[in-house]
């Protein structure tokens, strides 16, 4: 959480600034360390947050974890290790943040505390795992597992976006052609030949009316778009509305299938990584659930966590959520009975990742021809809108 604060230093000077903290008590502790007495503070709305938007991919995070693992293997100190990474890392936001982290660690802060200030760059999951690694003295193994975890997420995300880039590009080109046709080509054609507007077919009249509206109300249309975007951004901060939208998404069959597959894959991947890192079952479940971005699903998974804490088996806890399929539950149950739960999640991770990749290929195979057909229909309507008036004009001239 980002806070805006007003404080006084020992000299009585007023200091204003922004600070990241988990809660208000931690904020006060952080300011006290800086020898500041807080007078006033407030949470910063996500929409108006001053923190910069940094482009950091999962691959960049994986490379950071790899370099940290190498530094720890060579038994370098944290400061020496960070110097090595700063000289090797290519991503500018990460490099810049590491320089600040190095300074903070030089002042006695832990790696976890220093990285907490850069949560706009590093995922919460990684920061939480670093805390666990520092507490258990198993940081090298944590970074090694996190590298594999983020490389896999990077590969899946790349495949996901690749599946939709081509259809989206074709659709945008088709819509752009439609707009140019409506606002430029068709009006010039009608005006050049002085065609009687009352004699035009319905499709041509529709295009002309739309063109006239866009031309006359350019400023009004831009204002409307701006208002809609602003409302969407404001509504995104409404937790209840976000949850209702998520519920609605799960009522759409294809979207529900994609979301459920994605959540199952992410859950098994995270649980596999955490259990292999030596984290206990309850804590692994808790951390995994905290990384799920879907608020509606997160709420359901936390209900399963409560059952696990009260003594229920993991398989029964997951079954109660009604998110995981029978095969998933059975594999988890076998792992529980044999005391090899980490191996069960390793198996599920591999199977579900392959299943997700195959599903994305199928979606691509369906989406691409569908978009091409839609664009084809749009272009056909343009041709018809011009061709019919031309044929009518030729017929009239022949008479």
Structural class: mainly alpha
CATH topology of the largest domain: Receptor-associated Protein
The tally of helices reads 16
Return the domain count. 3
Q: What is the makeup of the main sheet?
A: 3 strands, antiparallel
Give the number of DSSP strands.
Answer: 3
CATH architecture annotation name of the largest domain: Up-down Bundle
Q: Extract low-pLDDT stretches.
A: 47-53
What amount of the residues lies in strands?
5-15%
Description:
The structure is a single chain. With 399 residues, the chain is mostly helical. It folds into three domains: 2-48; 58-151, Type II secretion system (T2SS), domain F (Receptor-associated Protein), CATH 1.20.81; 164-399, Receptor-associated Protein (Up-down Bundle). It has helices spanning 24-33, 58-73, 78-88, 92-106, 111-116, 124-136, 139-192, 202-216, 218-235, 239-249, 253-276, 281-290, 295-309, 314-321, 326-338, 341-398; strands at residues 2-8, 14-20, 37-43. A three-stranded antiparallel β-sheet has the order 2-1-3, covered by helices on one side. Helix 2 runs antiparallel to helix 7 and helix 8 (202-216) crosses helix 16 (341-398). The longest helix has 58 residues, at 341-398.
């Amino acid at each position: 959480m980002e806070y805006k604060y007003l404080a006084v230093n020992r000299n009585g000077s007023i200091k204003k600034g922004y600070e990241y903290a988990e809660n208000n008590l931690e904020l006060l502790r952080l300011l006290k360390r800086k020898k500041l007495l807080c007078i006033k503070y407030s949470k910063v709305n996500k929409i108006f947050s001053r923190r910069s938007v940094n482009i950091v991919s999962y691959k960049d995070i994986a490379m950071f974890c790899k370099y940290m693992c190498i530094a720890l293997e060579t038994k370098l100190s944290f400061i020496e290790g960070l110097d090595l990474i700063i000289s090797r890392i290519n991503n500018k936001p990460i490099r810049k943040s590491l320089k600040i982290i190095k300074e903070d660690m030089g002042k006695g802060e832990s790696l976890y505390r220093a990285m907490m200030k850069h949560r706009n760059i590093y995922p919460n999951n990684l920061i939480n795992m670093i805390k666990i690694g520092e507490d258990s003295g198993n940081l090298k193994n944590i970074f090694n597992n996190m590298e594999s975890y983020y490389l896999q997420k990077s590969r899946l995300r790349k495949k996901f976006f690749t599946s939709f880039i081509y259809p989206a590009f074709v659709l945008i080109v088709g819509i752009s052609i439609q707009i140019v046709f409506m606002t430029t080509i068709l009006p010039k054609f009608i005006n050049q030949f002085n065609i009687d507007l009352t004699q035009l077919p319905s499709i041509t009249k529709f295009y002309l009316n739309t063109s006239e509206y866009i031309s006359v109300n350019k400023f009004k249309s831009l204002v409307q778009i701006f208002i809609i975007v602003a409302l969407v951004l404001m509504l995104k901060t409404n937790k209840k509305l976000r949850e209702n939208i998520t519920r609605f998404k799960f009522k759409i069959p294809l979207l529900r299938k994609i979301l459920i597959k994605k959540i199952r894959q992410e859950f098994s991947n995270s649980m596999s990584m955490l259990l292999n890192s030596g984290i206990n079952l309850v804590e692994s479940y808790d951390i995994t659930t905290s990384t799920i971005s879907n608020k509606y699903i997160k709420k359901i998974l936390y209900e399963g966590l409560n059952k696990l804490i009260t003594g229920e088996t993991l398989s029964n806890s997951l079954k109660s959520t009604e998110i995981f399929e029978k095969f998933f539950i059975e594999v988890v149950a076998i792992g529980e009975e044999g005391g090899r739960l980490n191996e069960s999640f390793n198996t599920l991770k591999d199977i579900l990742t392959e299943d997700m990749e195959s599903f994305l290929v199928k979606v691509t195979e369906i989406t691409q021809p569908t978009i091409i057909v839609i664009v084809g229909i749009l272009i056909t309507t343009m041709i018809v809108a011009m061709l019919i008036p031309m044929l009518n004009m030729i017929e009239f001239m022949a008479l």
